[in-house]
Specification:
With about 120 residues, this protein is an all-alpha fold. It has one domain (about 1-110). Helix content is about 80%, strand content about 0%. The protein contains six helices and no strands. It has helices spanning about 1-25, 30-45, 50-55, 55-60, 65-80, 85-110. Helix 2 packs across helix 5.
Amino acid sequence: MEYLKAFLCGGLLCAVGQILIDKTSLTPAKILVSYVTAGVLLGAVGLYQPLIDWAGAGATVPLTGFGSLLAKGVRQAVAENGLLGALTGGMTSTAGGITAAVFFGFLAALVFKSKPKS
C-alpha cells in the first residue's frame, strides 16, 4: 500500500507539471521554480508534512519535497541559532541532496560524451 500511495502522490505532482507544460505558456524552468516555492510555502506553514507522512517518497522526492526540506531546515536553524539560521538552515538541511546531484552529474559527464543539438 505504501508503494501505491507514493506512486499516486508523485504521479499526480508530475502529471500536474506536464499539464502545465502542455497547456500554458510557462517554461519548464518556471514550473520547477514554482514547485520548489510551493514546497517551501507549504512546508513553512506545516501543510506539507502530513502529505509526507501519508505518501512517503512520493512527496519527498519531487521538487516540492526539496522546498519543504528547505523550510524545515530554516525553521530548525532559526530555533537553534537565531536569525542567522535563516541564512544557513536551508543549505545545511539539503547539503546531502545537493552533493549527490553534483557528484552524479559529474559522473555522468565523465561517462557520456556530450553532443550538440541538431
